[in-house]
Design goal:
By secondary structure, the protein is of the alpha+beta class. It contains six helices and five strands, in the order ββααααβααββ. α3 crosses α6 (103-115). The chain is globular, with a radius of gyration of 16 Å. 16% of the residues are buried.
């Protein structure tokens, strides 16, 4: 089996293991959300607040560890490709980043991520009370202070 990559096993300081119990009591597979140094040292990332940076990490966790919009909307070309993800108000509350009364802070921080070129909103689910769909993008690479 030459050429086949071996599955990465997280170190004990990186993860609780392959499966874990989430805040809702559901057993989940553990995933990682890679963040590269070129992004961390970019002007766009440096210009974010600490909370906005953590929100970006949570968005990456949603992207890698949860259902993708392309599975739910197979006929919509706007969500085709693997850059799209859902990020719900409930999810960020579960992560503990925002309290139930700070939803305006969440939306302001998401707007900052959009304005800095890290993500874009593909479809808002607000009117239909559905999940909002976002897409990661690379416009942050052009951002200058």
């Amino acid at each position: 089996m030459a050429g086949r990559k071996r599955k990465y096993t997280p170190k004990n300081f990186e993860s609780r293991g392959e499966k874990y119990l989430d805040c809702n009591g559901k057993i989940r597979s553990d995933t990682s959300a890679n963040i590269y140094e070129s992004l961390l040292t970019s002007d766009a990332f440096k210009n974010l607040t600490s909370k906005q940076k953590i929100l970006y990490v949570y968005a990456k966790a949603q992207f890698y560890g949860h259902r993708k919009p392309e599975k739910d909307f197979k006929d919509l070309p706007d969500v085709a490709g693997n850059e799209c993800f859902y990020l719900q108000w409930k999810s960020v509350q579960d992560y503990g980043l925002y309290t139930s009364t700070s939803h305006s802070n969440f939306y302001a921080d998401m707007k900052a991520l959009i304005d800095h070129g890290f993500i874009e909103r593909v479809a808002s689910g607000k009117r239909q009370r559905q999940k909002t769909i976002y897409r990661f993008c690379s416009e942050w690479q052009k951002w200058k202070i």
